C-alpha cells in the first residue's frame, strides 16, 4: 500500500505543479477586469466623474471628451449589482468625486448577470475585483481556479502562445473601450435589431425588478450621503432596435428612474431615441463606435458634466 501511494504521488505531483503554473500564468494575462482595476486605482484621487454601466456605456462614453477628469467603470454585461459594489468599494477613497453617471439600459432594472448566458463573468469579479455575487455556489470550481474559469481548452490555447495574450485590447486608460466602425456592417439591419431586442427582452425577469430597484436606490442613497451628484442616462440605439422593444418595460423604467430623481434630486437624460445619432455612429444596433462615442461624450459634457459645480 505504501508503495502504491508513493507511485501515485510521483504521478500526481507533476500534475499539481503544471496546474499551479497554469494558475499563475493565467493570473498574469491582461483582461478587462484586472486592467481596468489597475487603471482606476492609479487615478482614484483625481477622478471627478465616474461612469457606470454595461457594454453600451463601455463603448459609448469616452471621458477624454469631458471638461473634467472622468473614468469609465462600465464593463461587458455589468449589472446594477456590480455598479453598486464597485462604486461603493471606492467612493470613500475618491476624494475628488463630484458626479456618478449611471446608465439605465432597456433591461437594467430586470436583469441580474447571474441569470444570463454570460454569467461566467460573475467569477471574473470574484477573482479580479474581490466582489463575490451572493448566489454563486461555494463548491463551484470557477470560484477558486482560473484554469476552470478560462476553461482547460482555452487555457491550453493560451499556453501554446506562451500566455502572451491581451484580452484588454483597445481599452483606454480612462476605462473606455474603442470599437471602430465597420465598412460593410452586417450587424446593423432590421432583422439583427429585432433579434437583439428580443435577446434583451429575454434578459428581463419580473422577479428581479424589486431587487434591482432596491440595489439602485442603495447606490443613489450612498452617493448622496457622500455629496456626490447622481445622473442617470440611457444611451442611444438605432430604430432597428427600439422599434422592437416592449413599451410597458420602457414605461416602468421611466417611472422608476423619474421617481428616484424626484426623491433624491437626481437628473435623467434619455438619449434612447435621440435623432442626433445616425447609423454612422453605431457599431451595431445598440452599441456606438468610436465616432458615436465622441458625439455622445461631448453631449454629456455639454449637458451634464460642465454644469456640475466643481
What's the layout of helices and strands?
Layout: H1 2-28, H2 34-41, E1 49-52, H3 55-60, E2 70-72, H4 80-90, E3 99-103, H5 121-129, H6 146-150, H7 152-160, H8 190-202, H9 209-225, E4 229-234, H10 239-242, H11 247-264, E5 267-270, H12 290-303
Parallel strand pairs: 1-2, 1-3, 3-4, 4-5
Tell me about the largest β-sheet.
5 strands, parallel
Order of helices and strands: HHEHEHEHHHHHEHHEH
| Structural class by helix and strand composition | alpha/beta
Give the strand tally.
5
Low-pLDDT parts are none
Proportion of residues in β-strands: 5-15%
Mean pLDDT: 95
List keywords for this structure.
single chain, 310 residues, alpha/beta, Rossmann fold, 5-stranded parallel beta sheet
What's the short version?
The protein is of the alpha/beta class. It has twelve helices and five strands.
Word description of this protein:
- There is one protein chain.
- With 310 residues, the chain is of the alpha/beta class.
- The chain contains 12 helices and 5 strands.
- The chain has helices spanning 2-28, 34-41, 55-60, 80-90, 121-129, 146-150, 152-160, 190-202, 209-225, 239-242, 247-264, 290-303; strands at residues 49-52, 70-72, 99-103, 229-234, 267-270.
- Strands 2-1-3-4-5 form a 5-stranded parallel sheet.
- Helix 4 (80-90) packs parallel to helix 9.
- The model has no long low-confidence stretch (mean pLDDT 95).
